[in-house]
Amino acid sequence: MASRLLFTPITDFPVPVEKFPKPHQRVPCFTFALAPPTSYSSKSISSSRRGSPPPPPPLNAVKEELIQSPSSERTHDSKTSPSSSSKLVLVAGGSGGVGQLVVASLLNRNIKSRLLVRDPEKAISLFGKQDEETLQVIKGDTWNPEDLDPSIFEGVTHVICCTGTTAFPSKRWDGDNTPERVDWEGVRNLVSALPSSLKRIVLVSSIGVTKFSELPWSIMNLFGVLKFKRMGEDFLRNSGLPFTIIRPGRLTDGPYTSYDLNTLLKATAGQRRAVLIGQGDKLVGEASRIVVAEACIQALDMEFTEGKAYEINSVEGEGPGSDPQKWQELFKAAQAQ
After folding, report:
1. Low complexity bias located where (predicted)?
2. What are the tens digits of pLDDT across the range 170-211?
């Protein structure tokens, strides 16, 4: 069953603009896709922009509008947890529609991040140049085992996997980026390469993965996307690693086409800010990419979500924002029903 909790309206969720340069290049972006890499390399990112601090956001505001005005000071939403300084989060698919929102939120929280992406230049165009201690960008593709060198995972404490591709044949399948390659082989390769010391991996999957042979899910699964996502989930479950699975409904609010976070993250979910979280693959509906990204980050530190899968929808109403307590209530309520 699903649970619904309504909170303060989504209004402001400022990310220090100093972390991102002015728009300078248009690079297409979309959710989840990865393509074959040609080599392994890492790039660092550094900040360069300063400005006046913005007015403080309303209490418990949702981070639906991540960037508002230049600031070098933390706001209520950018406060880190006591363990944030010791975190190093690897984001697979960090330049996709959900992944780029995950990365922006991690930067806002001053959590060190490492991105595994097929196109480092695209990542730099999105996130600007940050100090290597803050953000590292590594070229690689999860469905190519040779790209997953052990050095990539040195020091990594948490992983958020946002990789994926389209359910039906499209240009995103170019380079053999099919559901089998990305959602099954890629997840299997990534999970197999992760160190046993990992504290948590959060995998973004999909609603309907347990019912892919039933209508209407069988239509979406014509080319195997739900079946292969379920195979990836099962492999993770059997890996022995601490995990949480997030199964969003049909993704909305993107993929964005602003190509730069200064404008990209000003997008909102409109009136659909409230969050429904359920278990048992019973939810049917849509999910804002912004909400999904926040759910992934919140789940990293919730011990009671370990070893569990949650479905997530966005509905009309006011949302939990980045408030950990409200997200805990949502996740716990889903388990209680």
Report:
1. 36-51
2. 888 888 889 999 999 999 999 999 999 999 999 999 999 999
